[in-house]
Design a protein that fits this description.
Rossmann fold, heme biosynthesis, four-stranded parallel β-sheet, 350 residues, metal ion binding, binds coproporphyrin III, porphyrin biosynthesis, metal-binding, binds fe (ii) ion, alpha/beta, cytoplasm
């Protein structure tokens, strides 16, 4: 698909055996000021799963699904995969592309929102990898944040309806929808850019986008419910030093309050993520579930998009959008990014 000669899946990376865990955590947190106790604690989450993070296999599954979708729709791009924090490392992938004679690449990150951690850091990863490879490195165009693309929204709406059906019928109508995303420092949130990509503009794009996705998904879920569901935004996986403010409320704290208000059932929708990786499998399926059990709240968790057909078709649509540089951006909200190239200040500073 002109002008591209390859597609790149850009992801976070995760360990796949016990011995990988500590080196992986060192890669993630180098220079980030994460307390040692927090690292030890997160290490235990991985050890509980024998050192295997689900994220790499989820990337392989997504690549297989995108390959089939590209083939069925006449998109003849080869597919590459590179990670920020673990093998296959992005720099090795860029070197491989250079060796294969690839000149111009369209890349999708497994992260749908604006902010330093979810978007700009991937741009920096790309720059660093290209620099390391040198003159033969291909040009790499990263697809813009895609949080309100209909394919992303529809996959969550579908998965949320399925989760509601897993609740006992008498709890369904009153179930609270809790939309959960990775917390970030409030300073990172304030610097997470402007929906219209105006450098230096107000910021706060990350929580604004999360709130908008929660609204859009709920609207679709409610369209086939007997009545509307109350919904709200919560955060998970807080890290960093104790005194540093991060986005709140934490899902566990909020569950306590909801129990006190008499809420009996919740559906947790991990709308801040694109697959059911470790932050979902541990922080929600183990920790938040335990909190809910203790409080007598029935909790079910909706699946993240993973290889949902709407999400896979979205990938192809975003590749087409990026290829036709003047094409209108597919987005369901007023927050759809208007730029492709994220000028400094657009998608977040550290
Ligand atoms: C916004 C956001 C996303 C969502 C967007 C996206 O998906 O990219 C995300 C995803 C993920 N985060 C992940 C894992 C970790 N994140 C950490 C630390 C941090 N995350 C942050 C933010 C985010 N993280 C931040 C601000 C930190 C503090 C350090 C720093 O400023 O950079 C740490 C260190 C230990 C800890 O402090 O918890 C780990 C191990 C995994 C892999 C899971 C697996 O293995 O399956 C995934 C997909
Ligand atoms: Fe993280």
């Amino acid at each position: 698909m002109r002008p591209y000669d390859a597609f790149l899946l850009l992801s976070f990376g995760g360990p796949e055996k016990t011995d990988d865990v500590i080196p992986f955590l060192e890669n993630v947190t180098r220079g980030r000021g994460i307390p040692r106790e927090r690292l030890a604690e997160v290490g235990e989450h991985y050890f509980l799963f024998n050192g295997v993070s689900p994220i790499n296999q989820q990337c392989r599954d997504l690549i297989e699904a995108v390959r089939a979708d590209f083939d069925a729709n006449g998109v003849d791009l080869p597919i590459y995969w590179g990670n920020r924090n673990w093998d296959p490392y992005l720099t090795d992938t860029v070197a491989q592309m250079a060796e294969d004679g690839v000149r111009r690449v369209v890349a999708l990150a497994t992260s749908a929102y604006s902010s330093y951690s979810s978007h700009r850091q991937y741009l920096e990863d790309v720059d660093r990898a290209r620099e390391a490879v040198g003159a033969g490195a291909p040009r790499i165009d990263l697809i813009r944040p895609y949080f309100d693309h209909p394919g992303f929204i529809d996959s969550f709406a579908d998965n949320t309806r399925a989760a509601l059906r897993r609740l006992p019928a008498d709890l369904r109508a009153d179930a609270r929808l809790l939309y959960s995303a990775h917390s970030i420092p409030t300073a990172m949130s304030q610097a997470s850019g402007d929906p219209e990509c105006r450098p230096g503009a107000a910021g706060g794009a990350y929580p604004a986008q999360l709130a908008e996705v929660a609204r859009l998904v709920t609207e679709r879920v409610d369209a086939d419910s007997e009545r509307g569901h109350a919904h709200e935004l919560v955060y998970q996986s807080r890290s960093g030093p104790p005194g540093q403010p991060w986005l709140e409320p934490d899902i566990n704290d909020r569950l306590e309050e909801l129990a006190a208000e008499g809420v009996k059932a919740v559906v947790v929708v991990p709308h801040g993520f694109v697959s059911d990786h470790m932050e979902v499998k541990y922080d929600l399926d183990v920790e938040a579930l335990e909190t809910a059990d203790k409080l007598g709240i029935r909790l079910v968790r909706a699946l993240a998009p993973g290889t949902h057909p709407s999400f896979v078709a979205m990938v192809r649509d975003l590749v087409r959008e990026r290829a036709e540089s003047e094409a209108p951006r597919a987005g369901l909200s007023a927050l759809t990014p208007t730029c492709h190239d994220c000028p400094p200040g657009c998608c977040g500073q550290r």
